[in-house]
Structure formats: structure tokens, C-alpha cells
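One-letter codes give the sequence; the fold follows as C-alpha cells. Both lines appear below.
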Amino acid sequence: MRKTRARKTGWLLALILLLWTIPATADDPPKKVRLAYSGWEVGTAIAYVGIDGGIFKKYGLQVEEVFIRDALSAGVYSLIGVDFLIGFGNPIALLQPMTAGADIVSLGTHVSQVPYHMGVSSDISEIKDLKGKKIGVSGIGGRSDLLARVILRRAGLDPLKDVEMVPVGLSPNRVAALSKNIIQGAPLTPEIADRAKQLGLKVLDVKEVPLITAMLMTTRSFIKKDEETVRRFMKGYLAAIHFYLTRRNESIAIIRKYFSGREPETLEGMYEAFAAQLKPLPAPDREAAQALIDAASVVNPKSKDIRPPDLFEPRFLEELRDSGFLDELYAEKISL
């Protein structure tokens, strides 16, 4: 009996793997989907590679590109009339509609591990000493704000209760505010941190900080209506990431089509910057997601009731991982 059950289980797993790894056949009519994006970032680069490299087509999809002027500035309204959205803007625009019950969810996210430091006043010995102090950031929901919130939470501080986040502008403004003790802490890039040290300011080293750089979104209603299309799109999207990471020259050639006037060195730099943000599985990062929620909660206290898992629908990535799709995809290593 046990042998029979094990044999049946083995056949079932083999069938699941087969269904995940076999692309759509040539006889299958391509499914049309609309993909919206704005600006130029890592998610957009993957979309270009997936479309121009014929990768989405391999998985039975005909992708229509829809350019929107400002990713996520309209929140859920950016998804009206399209099936998928790639982009990242101010998290407040994303989470505000969610608190009102808007139908929006992320299928995956690109996360960079960013090297950052915390400039502090002379009386601060460690991050937890910033409790009750003012932290200078560029603006609520901005890059430095999100990074600061991760750093503070790692030290056991609640950014919503234990400190005051003060918008003071870009890095030079934050350094100036620190020197005048207007603020007692400020996240700084390594370059700005070195300059701050030269000015005699105190700088604390911190562990690299996760930062969401792009999100792939859809609606739960679209998932419910056409789950198989979502599954195909996710396979194509992950295959496009694989293409980008393993076929450097071909990826740069595709990028060049959209930036024909750029110097080769500039294009190579763009490629390398995006490649550094990519992982085979664009799974969400809990710390980075919590920072989004913290920032949105400043404007709308209801946002604090959102939990990081509420932002994502992870099952498609989990299926791809567990089915062996990624293992099959990366079985053949191609040199960069």
C-alpha cells in the first residue's frame, strides 16, 4: 500500500513539474495581456527583455505595453484597463487605496541591499539611543525615509512612536541639519557619510538595508478571473530575469534600442546597476515591506493595520520555486 501511494505521489509531482516547465505550444493562440509601466527602472528593463527577447511569447502571451506618466501616483487607478503594472512610487499612493479595500496586490518585488550609514549627534553611541530624537529624511515615503525606518526597527525602535521623522531635504541638507543639532540622526550614503566625518560629525555603521526598487502588481479579481494567464506571465517574467542575468550582451542590445543616443559605457553601467538588484526569485522582503507600511501610516493611521503579507500574493512564486521551474531554468549556466 505504501509503495503504491509513494508511486502515485511521484507521478503527481512529475506531472506538476511537466506542466510548469513546458511552454505553450505553437498551436495555442497567444493570450493578450496589457502591461503598464512608467519610467526606467529594473522592472521596466525586465519587461523590455521579456517582450523584445520573445520570452513572454514563448509562454503563450502577447504583451501590449502601456506607458503611464507617473507609476503608482494614482495608486490603484494605474491598474484600470491593464492586467499588470510594473513600477514603484511613493508607498502612500499604493497603501492608501488598500486601506479603503482597493483591489490591488503585488505578485513580486525587486529588493536591493543598500549600503547606508546613520549620521548622529555626538551624544549618540548606538541606534537605540535615538529614542525620543529627531531623524532627518528627504521626505515621508522617500528613499532615505524608508531606509531609516528599517534601521530604526532593527534597533528595536518604533519609527511611528519612538522618534520624530523630519523632512529636511537631500543629503547635504541633512548633514547641515545634523551639524546644527536641528536633527540628531540622518541616513547617509557611504559617500556623504565620508564627507560628514571630514566635517567632524559622528557616523554609525549599519548593516546593509533592504529597499524595494520595483513591484509587479495586478488585482485579485484578475487572478480569480484568469489564474492561468497570471501563471504564464510569472513564468515569462522569471525567464526574462534569467535572460537578463545570463545573457549580458543580448540584454544590453535590447536596452540600446530604447536609449539609442547613449554611450556604450552608460548602457553597460545601467545594465550592471539593474543586474545587481536582481535575484532569480523576486520574493518580497518583510523589512522593506514594513517600512512602506510605516511611511503610509504617517498620513493614514489605518495603514498600520496592514501586515506585510497583506501586500503580496506569494503563491505563484512559491509554485515556481517548489515545482523545480527555477532549477530547470538555471540548470544551464551561461557566462556573463
Remarks:
- The domain at 17-111+212-329 is CATH 3.40.190.10 (D-Maltodextrin-Binding Protein; domain 2).
- The first strand starts at residue 31 and ends at 37.
- The longest helix spans residues 2-21.
